[in-house]
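Worked Example 4.2. Consider the chain below.
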Amino acid sequence: MRSPIAVGGGIMFRVIVRFALVGLVALPPSPGTARDPSARNEPPHVEGLSAKEVAAVAAAIVAASIAAYRAGAKGPCACPDDVDRGGRRCGKRSARDRAGGWTVYCYLSDVPADMIRARILSASPHK
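Applying the procedure from the previous section yields the following structure tokens:
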């Protein structure tokens, strides 16, 4: 009699592989990794300004950056999470990830702190 491992082309091997794959799919990404969306939407710390104010200004800069790209450039791939005409995620083909050309801010973490500070100071009535 053959052992269950050898029967049917490796039943135990297939069971172990299935459990391993299910475990890998079910695990959430580690905080701070590139695939963790919350890490991308953390605005930079700007000394002397509230986190709410910084987040609001950074969100406005991101929206304006993406709108400017779409108004003046060809193609739908401003950011990695955008979808191209074929329905595929843009990923590394996005303008944000290509060398040269457009500088697109797609995430709150992309916006430099000095740009946020300059935007807030320029909008301040007390300069």
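The longest helix spans residues 51-72. The chain has two domains: 1-30, 37-123. Compare this with Example 4.1 before moving on.
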